[in-house]
Design goal:
By secondary structure, the protein is an alpha+beta fold. The chain has a single domain, classed as Cytochrome c-like domain (Cytochrome Bc1 Complex, Chain D, domain 2), CATH 1.10.760. It is built from 7 helices and 4 strands. The chain has a two-stranded antiparallel sheet. Helix 3 packs across helix 6 and helix 5 packs across helix 6. The longest helix has 17 residues. It is globular, with a radius of gyration of 16 Å.
């Protein structure tokens, strides 16, 4: 029985892998990303940042890791406050958060160094994986102090 389950898991993983596109993120690293998301083309700088820095925890699918790293896909916490999302990407967060009814307590380190990078990646996330979160501008977040 376990062998049958393993075969189905491997087959499912192979199928998912085949629906991805290779993206070079550095001279020595390539990641594979879902290829059918319109947010990749609409927000290419944000997509690049996400695939370099965010996907390890939040996954290429935006679904996170249950109980450890919150989803970004259809995440009530993310979609409720775009400015807070930019602030968390800029400065990290040590606060517990409740996303879609689940509490997450693992700290998030800062991910980017500028307001523009934060806006780029958040605009991507707000619109990837079927999210309909709109956009935010650098002008709207310029008052966020960058804390290191």
């Amino acid at each position: 029985m376990l062998l049958i389950i393993a075969v189905f898991m491997i087959a499912g993983s192979a199928s998912a892998f085949l629906n991805q596109t290779a993206v070079e993120v550095s001279e020595s690293a390539v990641v594979y990303t879902p290829s059918s998301d319109p947010a990749d083309a609409k927000f290419p700088e944000g997509a690049k940042i996400y695939k370099q820095k965010c996907f390890v925890c939040h996954q290429l699918s935006g679904e996170g890791v249950p109980g450890a790293f919150p989803p970004l896909k259809n995440a009530d916490y993310l979609l409720a406050d775009k400015k807070r999302a930019v602030e968390q990407v800029l400065n990290g967060s040590n606060e517990a958060m409740v996303v879609n009814g689940v509490t997450y307590t693992i700290p998030m380190p800062f991910q980017v160094d500028t307001h523009k990078e934060a806006v780029d990646v958040i605009n991507y996330v707000l619109n990837a994986w079927g999210n309909d979160g709109g956009t935010i501008t650098v002008e709207e977040v310029k008052d966020i102090k960058i804390v290191r």
